[in-house]
Amino acid sequence: MKLRSASSTRQGISLQNLSTQDVPPNSAENNNSATSKALRNPLVLDVVFAQLNNSDLKAARLVCREWADVGASLLGKRAFLDINKIFQLKGTTLHLATPVHDKLTRSLIIRDRFHPSVPAKRTDDVITQIFTELSFNLSQVTREIKFYTTLKKLAIAFLDGLRTLKATQIQQISLYVYSTNWNVNNAQIQAIVKLPIQKNLTSLKFEIPSNIRKWGRGVHTFQPVLQVWIDSAPNLTSLDVTASFCPSLEGCKNLKVLKFCYENCNHMSCRNFDIVDCTVTTMLTPVKDSLTELEFSFDVRRSGDQIRNIDVPIMSNLISLTVNPGYVYIQEFFDEKHFPKLRNLTLRDQYYVFVELSTHLNFWKQYRRVESFVLQTSGNYRINLQDVERIVHLFPAVKKLDVTVSVNSNLATAVMIPFRRWDLEEARLVVRNVCVATELARVLRYVANWKGGKRVNFENTYIKQDALSACCQDIILYSRGLQ
């Protein structure tokens, strides 16, 4: 990698070579010893360095050139290099402020805030210029990039830089949007020049953090940015999108994993968006035969919408499905016809509101092929007996169970009973907010009657030591069958 550094003209970037010429005269014999040779052998160093944490690994790289090279390779796989910290502007010229080993550029983070020498009005130019300065590394070495931005123009600058490279070895790109622009409007959603085909790009992540989704503005204008990336990646196998819009997946013939979370943007152009028709009909149909794992959820600030009479696709090869039940319900979709190969089902409370679980369960028809069932709840939601009874009835063939619940003293015992009807091979239960020691013992007692291997974790317990001591014998007794 050739760059202009602050202390020299264009030169190869590497760690300072720590020569052994200045050590005592007998060092030649030491360097030729079996131990010395072994400690410079890359195969040996790979094993040794793998045991070190990142801090110790950085220190080890200072010992000698061989350790620097091998350590850089491992560190480049473990950690992300923050590009913003190594570039500065001197006048109009971009300089590398500190030498960096090529292998450390395997995983990069790029933000839209640089050294104070880079004025805000030059940020987009600098982002694009980085791709020119690091052209060799970004084309040949880099495998993953995380890009954090607040403005669409900076995301476009990133695309402009990537466009100059044409072919790359980049496999994964993540874009995190922190937009708080209140002045954008629908007219700003416009097409962007296509990227060259990125044949090695297999994983894309587009995320708008929850606080920005709730209070931010203008996130919908980033839709063409994501779409350009998707269209440039014909070999895309994994797509993770959290946004206020739906991408087109027409070109994603090899997509295996789709994680999609829709949450309405507060901008007026996002109102009355037909989310269900978009996600189920438009977005899922092109990938209905390739997907093996699907995760989708909605948080659109409205309740109880029941969608009927839509042409939902048959997900012919889907094995794993994760759903966040809430706000929007899709009828005539959750059944064996539309998920003929489904084996793993997860119902997850993502938004600390799970009041619609019973309603969602009513849209499922009995499914006899689900073998793994996961129920994850958050906050202080109390699962009730009727929900558990319904789950056991809908999915009678479950062999693996993983449940996270928060229960009160009146329900703790009751909700454990129905699960024993399953012919389980493996079970894990996480119980939150237990405040009574006798309740803890009762949970263990009923879980002990479940079939198969069992594990129980108690989180956020509020039990005094003397109360726990009084139930200690029961806790030991009912824990004997647990793993």
Summarize the structure.
The chain is of the alpha/beta class and 483 residues long. Among the domains are: 72 residues, no CATH class; 113 residues.
Q: Please, what is the oligomeric state?
A: single chain
Strand tally is 20
The percent range for strand residues is 15-25%
Q: Count helical runs.
A: 17
* Terminal CA distance: 53 Å
Helix fraction? 25-40%
Low-confidence stretches: 1-26
Main beta sheet = 14 strands, parallel
Helical/strand content category: alpha/beta
Estimate the global geometry from the Cα principal axes: globular
Taking strands numbered 1, 2, ... along the chain, how are they ordered across the largest sheet?
3-6-7-8-9-10-11-12-14-16-17-18-19-20
Mean pLDDT: 79
What radius of gyration results from the CA coordinates? 28 Å
Topology (elements, then pairings):
Layout: E1 2-5, E2 8-12, H1 27-31, H2 34-38, H3 42-49, H4 54-60, H5 65-78, E3 81-82, E4 87-90, E5 93-96, E6 107-110, H6 123-133, H7 135-141, E7 144-149, H8 152-165, E8 172-177, E9 203-207, H9 210-215, H10 223-231, E10 238-243, E11 257-263, H11 275-283, E12 293-299, E13 305-307, E14 320-324, E15 328-330, E16 344-348, H12 357-362, E17 372-376, H13 385-394, E18 400-406, H14 412-416, E19 426-432, H15 437-447, E20 453-459, H16 465-470, H17 472-478
Parallel strand pairs: 3-6, 6-7, 7-8, 8-9, 9-10, 10-11, 11-12, 12-14, 13-15, 14-16, 16-17, 17-18, 18-19, 19-20
Antiparallel strand pairs: 1-2, 4-5
